[in-house]
Structure formats: C-alpha cells, structure tokens
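In the present case, backbone shapes were mapped to integers, as reproduced here:
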Amino acid sequence: MKNLKIEYVHDIDCSWCPINYANLKTAIKALNDEVSVEIEFLPYEVKPNFKVEGEKISTHLMKLNGWNEQQHAEYRESLLRTAAQAGVKIDFSKRTHYYNTSLGHRLVHFASLSNKQAAMNELLIEGYFEKGLNPTKVDQLLELAARLDLDLGEAKQALTAQFQEPALVEKYQRARQITTRGVPALRINGKQVVIGTRPPEYFIDLLRNIET
C-alpha cells in the first residue's frame, strides 16, 4: 500500500475546484487497494478584494475575459457539461454571485481541527453551488458547523476574530508556494505539483506511478 499526502489548493467559489476534487476522489476510489491518501485543504482567494455583496458571476466573467453574452453562454454550457460528467451539481438559478471567501476558508480550517475538513468542504460545495450559500454570512456558515456537530461558540469566534490564526496563515503561505497561477492545484508528498483540472484517468495514472 502506497501512502500519499495531497495538499489540495482551492477557493470556495471556484467552479473548477469541486470538479477537479471529484475527479481526484474517483481516482482514489479506483485505487483503493493500491494507495492510502490523506488530503489537506489549503486556502487560496482568487478575489480577495471582493466586498460582502460580491459580484454577479456573468458580469464578472464577461468583464474579466472580454466576452459577449454568447461567449459567456457557451462557457457556461461547457462548464455544466464537465461538472455533470464529474458528478458535480451547479444551479445557476441559485448560485448567482462570486464572493469574498475568507470566512469560508476559516470555517474549513476550523473544521480541520476536529478532523472534519473534508466533510465541511463537501457542505460548502453543496451549499454554494447548489443552494446559493453566501460565504460572507456568518449565520449561514454556522448552520454548516451545526450540521457537523462542531462547537458553535468556538466556530463563531473563529469566524469573527479580528485576525486569522497563525496556523491558517501558514496554510495560505503554503498554498502560494504551490501555485500563484490560480486554482485548483495540488501537491503530492511535497513534490509533484498539478495545476488545473484533470480527468480521473490522469489522476489514476499519476497516483499509481508516482514515486514515494
């Protein structure tokens, strides 16, 4: 059995992060008898200067990429097709905005202290992409903490503290060591870096053949 440690760099509202993560999980499941994998989530904020109200997704992408409405529609269709292939649900009737995601990352880190970071990541994916959760809203994030039976007083303190915990700051720094080109990205056993979204077959081959 091969033991692997994967540092997974993601942002809460990045469309491709849950798709890539789903493909990675598919590969790990396929190699269940060959590899044992530990995943640590590292925070990366694509839009750190966004305010609480965020920005409409279509407006942001069209402005950022210089797209017209047709080009944006084609991108969205391609995204939804790729997401469906990975088993990821995105409901754009509810998921309408990009937001500042710093509090969402605080919540994932807080959950990691109870070994529940993967479960929290799943709840954030479901909440944001399927139900339109706003990750700047403390009350909405506390509802997720409650679903995992986390201490709500401690969770609120973590979300509302003036400064980030040193351990979370270190995670941000490590994420930037892995990628400055955006997310998703990951690093395996502190060595092999993969940036961008890959299919399950890619990860199966990589995890099976990587040297430890």
In short: The longest strand covers residues 2-10. The chain has one domain: 2-209. The mean pLDDT is 97.
